[in-house]
Amino acid sequence: MSTTPPEPTAGLGTGRLAERLRGILGPPFHLIDVTILFRLTRDLTRSARFICPAIGIGVVFYVPNIIETTA
């Protein structure tokens, strides 16, 4: 006993609907993605600019005889 799905009715097909929604909603979502990526990149860069010198200062002051060894 096989049942076949009903034939689609005339009107707006799902393929055209999906393409239309992609055309309308795609650019705003892309803008949001780019904005989030930009914010993350900027914050990560800012954090790295703080952490790298802090590690360097920590090494200089807390490793015994580092100044005498490198001088």
Write out key terms for the chains shown.
0% strand; rod-shaped; single chain; 2 helices; 71 residues; mainly alpha; 76% helix
Strand proportion, as a percent range, falls in under 5%
* Number of separate helices: 2
Helical content stands at over 70%
Summing up helix and strand content along with how strands pair, one would put the structural category as mainly alpha
Number of strands: 0
Which residues sit in consecutive blocks of at least 5 with pLDDT less than 50?
A: none
What this model shows, in words?
- The chain has 71 residues and is mostly helical.
- It has helices at 14-62, 66-70.
Overview in brief:
The protein is mainly alpha-helical and 71 residues long. It has two helices and no strands.
Secondary-structure blueprint:
Layout: H1 14-62, H2 66-70
